[in-house]
Amino acid sequence: MKKKFLSGVLVTCLLFIGCGGDDTQAPKPPLVKVQQVEASNAAQEENYSGVVRGRYETNLSFQVGGKIISRDVQTGSRVRAGDVLMTLDPKDVVEQSRSAEAQVASTRAQLQLAKANLDRYAELFKSEAIAAAVLDQYKTQYDAAKAAYDAAVAQAQQTRNALDYTTLTANADGVISEIQAEVGQVVAAGQHVLTLVQTGEFEVVVSIPENKIAAVQIGQRVTITFWATGDEVIGTVREIAPMADSAARTFTVKISIPNASNVQLGMTASVITQKTSPNAIILPLSAIYQTGDAAQVWIVEGGKVTLKAVEVIAFDDNAVQVRGLKAGDVVVVAGVNKLRDGQEVRTGEQ
Questions:
Q1: Which DSSP symbol is given to 208?
Q2: Structural domains of the chain in order of their starting residue, each with its CATH number
Q3: What does the DSSP 8-state code read for residue 136?
Q4: pLDDT of res. 325
Q5: What b/e sequence results for 245-270 when a residue is b if at least 16 CB atoms lie within 10 Å of its CB, and e otherwise?
Q6: Quick one: average pLDDT of 175-186?
Q7: Of 22, 35, 135, 170, which has the most beta carbons under 10 Å away?
Q8: Given the DSSP bridges, would you call strands 304-316 and 319-323 parallel, antiparallel or unpaired?
Q9: Residue 197: which region, alpha, beta or left (left: phi > 0; alpha: psi -120 to 50)?
Q10: CA 188 to chain centre
């Protein structure tokens, strides 16, 4: 009886196991995140904020010192070349000029006397009435008087020029962008009093971080959008500062822009630079499968993954530029370290 009971239990267990085996399923292939290559060129764009400035800005100053007695312009005034901007009190310079003219008259009289004495003693020397040493003495006096006269004439001319320098005029057509001195103020020669921005040509000035400056080159074309007007123009990089700013660690870049009627000095501009690498693709950094010094990516073909070698061109934050792929390739961009060559994968829910 006991043997029959054990046999029944064994048969029941075998039947149970057999039924459970029908419900067992093989594990599904892993699900991976992929990106399809859609282009054969990769373009990187960077956006920088800039300010419109005049290409030529001149800090104007008087060539002589004195007290300002008139200012004929305001900030924002448009001027033409030759227009009077400021005037100094000319009284002191006039007196200096009169003194110089008097000195010219005095040295002229001394020169005339020295010339008459020289002529007289030259005649005496011809008649052998005086020695050669005496004649040489009067020649020396004449030469000294001539030198003093020439110096006085030059000094008088300098004071006449100084009188002209008491009037500050515009050196070109432009706009007064800054005023540093007012009427009644005493200024020194060479002291900055006005800033003139020539309106013939504008440019946009931007500051580019040191880790991005390598992508910018002189002559490069960039896209510029003006915030106030919405206008979009193409500019050309004209100048790149040779050194970074010591505090901000940025390089100043100046971009020439075409003449635009709506552009005003001081406007805010958005500058977009674009760097294109031929036959390059931008992928997430997580797509790179590194083995030693070789960079590879997993390509999905026919539901299976295979490794494909790529050439890394550049890194940019969490992106990488690579060569070696073609349009239509399906690249695994996440979980690349958990795959093996020839493994079946899913690219979507199945």
A1: E
A2: 34-43+279-338 (2.40.420.20), 46-55+200-276 (2.40.30.170), 57-88+167-196 (2.40.50.100), 91-165 (1.10.287)
A3: H
A4: 85
A5: eeeeebbbbbbebeeeeebebebebb
A6: 92
A7: 170
A8: antiparallel
A9: beta
A10: 32
